[in-house]
């Protein structure tokens, strides 16, 4: 078989098939790039549509004690309730516009999520919602917030919030400072605040009544680590790569058939093969 593969005709065919395989591989990469581009475009269009629709009642998007779907990240929601006294926490090590600071995290006891209480009818009572009220800068050494404690205090009385949904974070290492944490984890917060609780949190965009000056509102959260792939173009990319593989396999098949053809001729005319060998 090796002697057949070394024949000039087979080497020429190999170069031709390798060129075809290279073209197929390049077309596959191009389709993969297109899959990413079209997937990202679809994600941006979906985000723009969700943004233009305005906030929906939280209960229509996410119920307490339920899994947070990834496509809810950045969706707008509204909710009403009252901040729970004594639940204020500062989330350490959070940067905003290039500066280090803290997120202001507070528990909201929900009274209306657009479902009239139906979303928690089977639970032990009205749920608590982790709410990121905004961001405050840290002092030069990063140890304390620059704003006064009165600014950070939980507002009292009923409040109506609109904001962006974000998924609960993974458990962190915690903090040695009372009233501090290093992650917004619903599982961890449930141990401190009690439940029922939501598996995500709201980043405030508007508040009625308004929040005190000194707490900066944050931008809409973005999805990180998404695949952003258009499946149709991904399928086309796989097709091109398969075609390239077929080109190489076709050459191997030709070499094998040529080898078997030579062996068959030798079996049918052994004296002729011997004469050719002696010559």
Automatic annotation (TrEMBL):
Location of the protein in the cell: Cell membrane
Family named by the database record: Belongs to the SURF1 family.
Origin: domain of life: Bacteria
InterPro entries found in the cross-reference section: Surf1/Shy1
The keyword Metal-binding belongs to this UniProt entry's keyword annotation: no
PROSITE patterns attached to this UniProt entry: SURF1
Membrane topology term: Multi-pass membrane protein
Name of the protein this chain belongs to: SURF1-like protein
Keywords for this protein: Cell membrane, Membrane, Transmembrane, Transmembrane helix
GO CC annotation, single: plasma membrane
Membrane-spanning residues: 234-255
